[in-house]
Structures are given as structure tokens and as C-alpha cells.
Amino acid sequence: MSADPLQRTPPAPPSTARLVRRELHSSRALPSVVVAVLLIAGCLVLLFEAVLKAVGDEPFLLDVEAAAARLGTLPSGVPASLLGAASVLLLVVGGLLLLLAVLPGRRARYTIPNERTAVVVDAEVVASSLARRARVAAGVAPEQILVTVGRSTVTVQVRPTSGVPVDAEAVRAAVADDLRRSSVEPEPRIGVVVAESGVIGQ
């Protein structure tokens, strides 16, 4: 009995799917630790200053009461430009922290469907394979091809040989065919850039 051409690869087991997701996405541990350390340090400073104030000693780093009174009088006595710059800075920092918390950290890695195991390849491996196909399609030397593989895009830069035109669409088709054969997921977008100046033929 012939196989059904529309039959798809069965879904990976939950444990394999979790493993693949862990390999494809970067951990948020480092940003979380940095933010936690900064918050803990700030709380410890405030606690230390409060203890000094309670025992009647001079402030070590910050006079908490004076700082609170100064904040209560804002924005009087402070240039509007300084307040605006501080507001923009706080907005940017808050936006970055929000994006780190919400968006998945995608690594430059791809998966190849396999019925028995999880296959994850680095972007460098994909770029090396695509560079060979692009070089053959363009008819140039290896050093005249540069392939950059990102999280969702593939950029092929070609420096043609002087006097020999390069068919950008043929290069794009060759790269697309190599991606289809390897079945990497998710399939990236392809961009081909042919330099205006060529090099002397090898």
C-alpha cells in the first residue's frame, strides 16, 4: 500500500516538545536576577538608612526624609527638560522590562521534523548549507558569498565576478529549495543582495 502523500509527521511527545522549546528560546533567568538584585540592594539601602535614622546617626548614603520631601515638591525647582529626560528614561526601562517579561526570547536556532527524535540546528549550520547552494547558483567563489541567518530571515549577500552578472532570483530559488529540503521550522524569509561592484575573477 502506497503512503498517503498528505500524511504529516506525527506530533512530538510532550516531553520532546518541551525540550525543543527550551532549546529554541533563551532563558529569562539573567534579566530576572539582575532586576531582583537591584531591587534587593535598593531595599537594603533604605532599611540601613532607616536604622541609622532610628538610632540618631547621620545618613550613610541617602537622607530618606530629605529625599521624600524633595520628591513631594516636584516638579518645582527642577528644569522641565530634566523631568522630561527622566520620564523618557523610565518609560524606556519599563518598556524593556515589559518586553522581556512578555515576549519569548527566540534563539537563532531551527528545528528539523523527525519522527524519532528532536533535531535542533544552529543558525551557523543552516547558513553554511545555504552558502554552498547560493555559491553554486551564483557561480562565484566561496569568499564572494555571505549568508546571515537570523531568527526569521535569511540574507544572502553576493559579490559578483566582474563582467559576470548574477541572477538574484536563481540564487533565491536555490536557497529556498535548500530550506524546503531540510524542512527547517519556522521557514525564514529570504533576501538576496547583489553588490554593485564586482571582484576580479579567480
Tell me what the structure shows.
Helix content is 50%, strand content 12%. It is an alpha+beta fold. The protein has a 3-stranded mixed beta sheet, covered by helices on one side. Strands 1-2 form a two-stranded antiparallel ribbon. Strand 1 (109-112) and strand 2 form a beta hairpin. Helix 5 packs across helix 6.
Short summary:
This protein has six helices and five strands; from the N terminus they run H-H-H-H-E-E-H-E-E-H-E. The protein has 202 residues and is of the alpha+beta class. Helix 5 crosses helix 6.
What is the fold's blueprint, element by element?
Blueprint: H1 14-24, H2 29-54, H3 64-72, H4 80-102, E1 109-112, E2 119-122, H5 123-138, E3 145-149, E4 153-158, H6 168-182, E5 189-194
Parallel strand pairs: 4-5
Antiparallel strand pairs: 1-2, 3-4
Helix pairs in contact: 5-6
